[in-house]
Protein 1
Amino acid sequence: VEQLNHREVESKWRKIWSENPAPGVPSRGKFYCLSMFPYPSGNLHMGHVRVYTISDVISRFRRMRGYDVLHPMGWDAFGLPAENAAIERNADPHLWTQQNIANMKEQLQRMLVNFDWDKELTTCSPDYYEHTQKLFLDLFKANYAYRARAAVNWDPVDQTVLANEQVDSEGRSWRSGALVEQKLLSQWFFRVTALADELDKDLELLSEWPSAVTTQQSHWIGRSQGAEIDFELTDGSKPLTVYTTRPDTLPGVQFIAVAASHNVCQSRPEICELITRMKAIDPDSNEGLLIPGLHAIHPLTGEEIPVFTAPYVLSDYARGAVMGVPAHDNRDYAFWKQNMPGKPVHYVVIPEGSSERIENGPYTEKAGIISPSIPKYGGKTIKDGTALIMKDLETSGTGHATTNFKIRDWLVSRQRYWGAPIPIIHCDSCGAVPVPEEELPVLLPSRIKSEGSGSPLARDEEWVNVACPKCKQPAKRDTDTMDTFVDSSWYFFRFADTHNKREPFSYETASSQLPVDLYIGGSEHAILHLLYSRFFGKFLMKQGQWSGGDLNGEPFRKLITQGMVHGRTFTTPETGRFLKPEEVDLSDSAKPIIRATGKTPNISYEKMSKSKYNGANPDDCINKYGADATRAHILFQAPIQDTLEWDENKIVGIQRWLSRVWRHVLTVCDDAQKQDISDFTIPATDSRTEAEVKLWNDIQSTIAKITTALASDYTLNTSISNYNKLTNSILDAYRKSKESTSEADKVGTAIMFNSVMKLIQVAAPVIPATAEECWAVLLQVQKKAWSSVFEIGSWPEAEELQSLSPLVDHVVFVNGKMRFMAKLDENWSQDQMVDAIMQTPEGQHWLDAKAEGKKIQRVIVPKGRKNVS
Ligand code: ANZ
Ligand code: ZN
């Protein structure tokens, strides 16, 4: 039996497709299908195969359905690995990256992924990072980018700044082994907090995102609803403001705690000195430092309460100051017990039904009533108590409701070489001056200077020293490059207008393509990448750089986070040591054996990694089984959101399916040729056999199922089983038609052809080369001109199902004599039968003419026999 040679067929169609783009004109709307672009590490891994197969299947389907599809691909090409390769192997990072890109692009093409390569972009190429720099300046001019001091990792031996990844778990430099220090440097930030409220609220608009992702975003943004309350200080200085989420516990405030950087400490030299000495204290301890001679005044009782600096108060959250309520907060309680041992704790809230609270420990639940012993607020519910306290604070002007966010501004400065240089020039007299736009891009120096200290760009004096664009005096370039997350926060805008030389993208192109209709990528990007992209989407909308679409500047309408691909992992039962492939005998794939011991290894599925010897190489797989089989297999093994256990052995199921399809295509073509059939028009609904109706219905309902799966449900694994089921129905119908003598079981060549062609069409997005090959053969036999199965708008739409009790030929006897045949449905009533008979020409001839003045007396339909009297 003939087998399809996948290598030949796949390379044949790859070539034809690259020369002839699918014909046809889109008749439906746009569909922007985006999969997260990869870092060009050099080789695709199975996770890439999974995500790009998904987006390829969806975008091929959309094109076939008549959509105007954008399915672009690019390279997230700045970052540390290229820089490290450059330092370690003295390689040119640019060249290293280009080679990796070339290799991975070839791998993607071997996977038969149909990307719009004419839209390809690479973030490390000057024609891209020029626009990243332009957007930086837009942010700077709009006051969304600013400079502030922040700590960096400093290697005192190499005299250089390190990325977090370059510091090991013991806090040592990856290269020099020196203990890394923290050093304060002026660095650039993007003001993400300015949009925190919107970024949080608009999560509501993202109804087509997985809720796990919106929840993580929401936690990250960390909206907190509470109140700011002022406390008078006994030295008459400016009142101290705290932030609390529990104003109802105000009666229980027993102390104030502030961060060491708080003005209360910083304005007192003697405290500053104590704090410096206290640094030796473990930051996780509860040891506080009492500020001597200073008290705060309790706004309700007028009592004087102590003020501490405490390690648990964060300097950069809310006001950097806390009202200490030992009775209702765990940290306050622990701090109070440690620093004021033996002092009582004043409970405010008590569980409903209990009297006073006497047990030890804080009562942290937000449930109960305010203790009746408390003047004015006692006996109220928490809700009413809170409202009343807030009203009193507002009346006296000492407090008000407010909102805080956990999210911090985005530190975008990296003291690295391989990134987009920050397009700012520092001048002693003019300050931070933007590089004039016509001078963009600020190109990276072509080589990393190995001698000198500081960050890589700072070492290159020639590059650093420039004239100030404003006053023309000697000035210095900013020597930081941007976090690579900046590059990936706007690449999906650039795809709408990749070749725009003047601007990052035009208003029109971006507004017509965005939001992205479907974004597919790993859940490791659930927080930062998606959040920063959302920030850019909103910022760019506010700047009038795009319309913002119908989701208030949200760039991604639907998000799918694909699951991980885990590899089969073998370990020894004794020690759990990972076994190398050559240590395991897999000749019986169901019963692996450890060669050395003859024992059965433990098998598990784990994240693929070199150290576990459980990785699968996409190239090997495609070579061995073909891209079509690999794609179908990876989709079939698990729902796209779930973890996938990669087991190559199971691919035989897919291979069998593919060869059954191919063999059947050859069979039906052979039949048509032998029978010299030239008319492939399918018979009208009323002249189909029972088997034909059944097959027809099967086809229609499968088309409907697959269409929904690809258009909205994204249940790609069930689609593969539906292909399989439909193939079985077609083969069964064919076999029965050949073997049976009953007319009802016959399936004519036309319907058989039609069925096979529909199967090929709906399977084409998953198995493009096999489908295209089958399609070509089927067209040829019908003497039709070749046209790609991927023709735009050619997707078959499901037609109406036909009733399962079909019209059957009946012999009509008139007055006892057999006269003619009529198609009748056995489930009809006698009247319906007479009506149907009377509508045929024969019926009119034999019955109507003679019936003048007479009536049809009786209609006899013997059960089980196809004749009518
Ligand atoms: C009094 C109180 C009583 C509090 C009580 C809680 C429970 P979230 O939800 O995270 O916003 N807080 C305020 N500023 C802080 C800072 N800079 N560093 C550390 N803690 C800080 O939490 C707000 C609560 O965290 C605030 O409410 C405050 O303690 C503390 F029974 O005030 B609360
Ligand atoms: Zn100047």
Note: Residues 651-674 form the longest helix (24 residues).
Protein 2
Amino acid sequence: PVTEELKAAGRRAAELDRAHVFHSWSAQDTLNPMTVVAAEGSAVWDGEGHRMLDFSSQMVNTNIGHQHPAVVKAIQEQAAKICTIAPAHVNDARSEAARLVAELAPEGMEHVFFTNAGADANEHAIRMARLHTGRHKVLSAYRSYHGGTNLAVNVTGDPRRWSNDLATEGAVHFLPSYPYRSYFHAETEEEEAERALEHLEHTILLEGPGTIAALILETVPGSAGVYVPPAGYLRGARELCRRHGIMFIADEVMVGFGRTGAWFALDHWDLDPDLITFAKGVNSGYVPLGGVIVSEAIRTTFGERVYPGGLTYSGHPLACAAAVATIGAMREEGMVENAKRMGEEVFAPRLAEIKEKHPSVGDVRGLGAFWAVELVKDRQTKEPLAPYGGSSEEMNRVVGALKAGGVLPFANFNRIHLAPPLNMTDEDLHTGLDVLDEALCVADEAIG
Ligand code: PLP
């Protein structure tokens, strides 16, 4: 229960926020941010004390939910022991976090370079690939997101790149495999994979394989639409990279650490990338942490040669202690297995019913605890309920109905994403899906 004191503190925080906080990705004068005064497990409480079910896991990072006691305790204990130490020193929390992360990665990937978050993990992975290959360009997909820093936002393939594009970073974009809105006029998954790979191969040949250092792909693209790749696509892309000496970077920032019902999403397709980037779920974002897992070949390149990169907080003890405790809690409580079950037993059947019932639903798709509902004006034409890169009155009303029903979603353009903590109870999951079911009537009405 939220006390009157907490509410008063929330009101004061909201005033100070408006007076002093400059927010991300926003026009500052148009904002009306929700105050959060408490968070626990799968729920947060707003400034008026309303409980909201967190179907966003914030930025799809609180995979273990809020305030997991084992992780809070590990951070407190580490803080009492050593809050911070330079990356050049050995530190037990960092060593153990690296061991655990490497243990979860595919065979032969034994070394981890820690960063502060996902964007800088991608920046470093690309830097490593460039130095390893002696090449410059980076291939990435349209409809992707790789982070907000200079290079990471330039390889990003969504509207967040448009105002930041320097066109000098060597980023080359290709069309992704996006079965629902196939760019290749494919009617089956097989056709989609085959034609998307053909397009990728043409892009590589036309750009000049000898100029391409890396291909970076989100294993399952996240904020760009949770569009699960068709069977064979990722392995085919990996093969093309191998054939042309291009480093394959799997961006597991959003999908790593259980989100899709496997420790890494690449486990679903038995992928063996040259580099894996991670952040978010590694410690559920309790303390900022990201990193790059490197193959033996790349580790060897920097055996004798200096790796020219680093960060003051690389492998920060508080963040690493949180990662050790998070991975431990996820294992003990079977959270990854639960995410898989949740996908198969709750999301897949319930979203199929929801699609059946609501004409505004064009597509539902996902894996584990990672789903998208794509809203359209017309199922035949697939015209989106909000334009690419924009919002609409109709989408705002759907999101409003979800929030009024006590559900915090992640909404983007014409899509509602559902990404709850991996340990949300089935009761809460069903409650949230009931609210979604109801909220979609607003969209049905809007499209008449
Ligand atoms: N890569 C992917 C796939 C992401 O989803 C994100 C963030 O949402 C990033 C990279 C960037 O991570 P960060 O915001 O921690 O820098």
Note: The first strand starts at residue 36 and ends at 40.
